[in-house]
């Protein structure tokens, strides 16, 4: 029998030069995170030779930016620690809830971004979770990916309150399984807080957010949802925001109503306003 060729010995693992250190961002992303300009514009500015790192003009947008480096755009310093900013947006029905800004056609970004004033348009925005295309209500956006993780992780136990209009007739007996932690095909759901507002309106508060979770839970007890609206995330409510409208949350709201203390508050570290903010 022919012998199997011997495998070459495994090369030793490459040393991780960033171990124990903060990983550098790449240049265009660092500018976008800092709110100096959106990433696409940053790439163009870098190519045009308008950006320097520690006094050297750098024309490659993937160049690493060491944590203590001094970044300048058109000779003006950019403060690299961006404040945490959060927008409350009232999602209308019929628009897709994409988490990536790149896929913009028919998505919430297409509705939100054109409304943003210059000082907000220069940040890279992330949607905080998703809502189904036909679901309306509160969708948060932030420039801080740690806040996305905080709000969407089931570990955080941040409540999300939905109101469903249901076919069929809701009563206490019907909704009881939702309060007990019912089985779903992707594992048991946590016990939900449920209130029957009237026979066609059920309020469901969850601390997790699985695909179509509210609709699946209601469907399983014979109350298929005709419409779904998210009223609140944490203690932030959609309030009287008009459909398609947004507002910037205050630092206190982010801290006290989303229970997030991860990054610098907006008032403590606003970006050095580079005059190039023309997004
Ligand atoms: N649960 C759903 O079923 N749909 C949503 O959009 C959000 C939660």
UniProtKB/TrEMBL annotation:
Q: Name one Pfam family in it.
A: PseudoU_synth_2
Q: Which GO terms describe its biological process?
A: enzyme-directed rRNA pseudouridine synthesis
Alphabetically sorted, this entry's keywords are: Isomerase, RNA-binding
| Catalytic activity, EC | 5.4.99.-
Q: Which domain of life is it from?
A: Bacteria
Please tell me which top-level EC class this enzyme sits in.
Answer: isomerase
PROSITE patterns, sorted: PSI_RSU, S4
Per its record, what are the GO molecular function terms?
A: RNA binding; rRNA pseudouridine synthase activity
User: Keyword RNA-binding: yes or no?
Assistant: yes
All copies of domain RNA-binding S4, residue ranges: 25-82
| Annotated stretches, region: Disordered | 1-23
Supply the PANTHER family for this chain: PSEUDOURIDINE SYNTHASE FAMILY PROTEIN-RELATED, RNA-BINDING S4 DOMAIN-CONTAINING PROTEIN
Question: Its family?
Answer: Belongs to the pseudouridine synthase RsuA family.
Q: What is this protein called?
A: Pseudouridine synthase
Source lineage: Bacteria, Pseudomonadati, Myxococcota, Myxococcia, Myxococcales
